[in-house]
Design brief:
2 copies of one chain form a homodimer. Chain A is an alpha/beta fold and 331 residues long. Chain A has helices at 11-22, 84-94, 108-123, 153-166, 171-183, 232-247, 267-283, 314-321; strands spanning 27-30, 35-38, 48-55, 66-67, 72-78, 100-105, 128-133, 185-191, 211-214, 225-228, 254-261, 287-294, 304-311, 325-326. In chain A, the strands form 3 sheets. Chain A has a 6-stranded mixed β-sheet with strand order 1-2-5-3-6-7, sandwiched between helices. The first copy, chain A, has a 6-stranded mixed β-sheet with strand order 10-9-8-13-11-12. A two-stranded antiparallel ribbon of chain A has the order 4-14. In chain A, helix 2 (84-94) crosses helix 3 and helix 6 (232-247) packs across helix 7 (267-283). The model of chain A has no long low-confidence stretch (mean pLDDT 96). Chains A and B meet through helix 1, helix 6, helix 7 and strand 12 of A and helix 1, helix 6, helix 7 and strand 12 of B.
Chain lengths: 331, 331
């Protein structure tokens, strides 16, 4: 294992320290328990938006703390749900008195720890609503999940929730539009290589030099199937078709197309994948109205990509376009 | 070789196509010869800023075309200088009638092809000034260069030049401030892994599992020396010390600290490296006034990092802070 780390047990803490130092104008890192919060805090009377989950998926979630997106995030150990205490602390930090929306990726341990953490915060007086993200069409149920996994569609949910809160929407309204966003986004990914959890020191799974894994999760969980390493066109067609078969959109629908790198994929390849994915989305009769290409929801240094499609409407488009200023996403 | 590509000979073209489709509001890709230009064009009467070089370093340069940075870029084949025709076309496209500044990384073939390309553009009536970037302290002269190589400091030069041009500075003034930026930035990098040129299909060099290469270039050229794979603290101290020994800044000087991923390094590791680099810069008596952490000047999928330090002054800080809106850098 070669990584730019020191003590593997301190990898998350060291990385958060760098994040805090580099972006002191945007966010602050707190400890005991560990969470990340907007430097300016949640404005009084505004709904707070919180997320979190295992580390190793950066910039998700900590890189999305800031104006127009998350008010706080609870980062667990690598590929490990945050503790209930972390969740409770993040919710309290994000509470501006108008309630808090908590966005949770659908993994069994995340769901459980967020549930307990939210209860702690509620007992202390917070009003909290939880929205579950389960956008991965690759698999139903797994060793990590009951139902579908939450993957790159989480970015869409967090952007929409943050923009709705920034616009001054009430708790019920933020929840409703975030749930609509979740119901309209689907994702599937491919892995070209495995990844190594620092504390483990060896790759999480083996993937031969001449195969790729279609339908991979963001923890290196098994996907749907393996195929011989193929061209970007073939791979992206498989991913887009799986996503669109599930979404079943009417011809002419306007969509957001998100091409997301898994951590170790260079920008040049992401744009090749975007071109191929876009071709396929258009062949299937949809209009790509918005696009995002980059490395956002990752599995450490894994090479690969996920493709998400989200059905837009006027409100979701306006919320997507609204200003955002975070460490990892700014417009 | 596993990459998200189709025909390796079309990798650059396919990637540029994706870039153009994803960012049609910011830039346009032109062919015969190939270059990338701001969608809105250079405003009349404003100095144009052009750069370019081999592909494989994305998002440099094409990802920096847009408001407040480059007006056009000429991307060559992977790790291959653009042709003089590409340079000439980019210069013509960026010419708003007030002259064009061309920023060239110091590699023998880039210098030569830009020289000829600029001559062609000048014969057609353009007024052009060239600024050479040579920020890499690792090596003097190599198979690719006479003198020092141009690496991640190029981002600093392009940002400063673009901001100066956007502010309405004349050609001489843009050249002067860009040259000042170049004279004040130094960089050194480390490779943890090699990288594979698509058309070659095998890694450019071998790096054992237990060694890293200090002072690597952005084409996988050899660095200063190899050491056993060490912790981030040790590596970053070596890089920062080499950079600061060369810059020889007075105690208390305000600097920009740029931690740049080589393509395959996850965000979490970049922030660990940033924390370590910042500690060392401060130990050496300097004040980190501005920071940038991300993947900007790369070697395909190489894992590794480069660290740049730039001495700021009021004007350079203001130009750095000025708005920018490109595919890869926005604030």
């Amino acid at each position: 294992m070669k990584k730019l780390l020191d003590d593997p047990n301190e990898a998350v803490t060291d990385s958060l320290r760098g994040l805090g130092l580099a972006h002191a104008d945007i966010l602050a890192v707190r400890h005991d328990p560990t969470y990340v919060v907007r430097a300016s805090g949640t404005p009084a009377g505004r709904v707070g938006v919180v997320s979190g989950g295992g580390s190793g998926h950066e910039p998700l979630h900590v890189g999305f703390v800031g104006e127009g997106m998350l008010d706080a995030a609870a980062p667990g150990a690598v590929f490990t749900a945050p503790s209930p205490d972390q969740v409770a602390a993040a919710v309290r930090a994000a509470d501006g008195g108008a309630g808090v929306v908590v966005i949770v990726k659908n993994y069994t341990s995340d769901v459980l720890n967020f549930e307990v953490g939210v209860e702690i915060a509620e007992e202390a007086g917070a009003r909290v609503a939880t929205v579950l993200v389960d956008d991965d069409v690759a698999v139903e149920d797994s060793v990590y999940t009951a139902g579908r996994r939450g993957v790159a569609g989480t970015l869409f949910a967090e952007k929409i929730a943050g923009a709705a809160a920034a616009r001054g929407a009430g708790l019920d309204e933020v929840v409703a539009v975030t749930e609509r966003a979740v119901s309209r986004v689907r994702t599937m990914g491919v892995a070209l290589t495995s990844c190594t959890v620092p504390q483990v020191g060896r790759p999480g799974f083996d993937l031969p030099d001449d195969e790729v894994e279609i339908g991979i999760g963001i923890h290196g969980e098994p996907g749907r199937y393996r195929v011989p390493a193929a061209g970007a066109g073939d791979i992206c067609r498989r991913l887009v078709d799986a996503v669109l078969d599930d979404l079943a959109l009417p011809v002419g629908a306007q969509v957001l197309l998100l091409v997301n790198g898994m951590g170790g994929t260079p920008s040049s390849e992401l744009y090749v994948a975007y071109a191929r994915a876009r071709d396929r989305v258009e062949e299937r009769g949809l209009e790509v109205a918005r696009s995002l290409v980059g490395t956002f929801v990752t599995s450490l240094e894994m090479q690969g990509v996920s493709i998400s499609v989200a059905l837009l409407d006027d409100e979701l488009t306006a919320l997507w376009d609204a200003p955002v200023r975070t460490a990892a996403l700014t417009w």
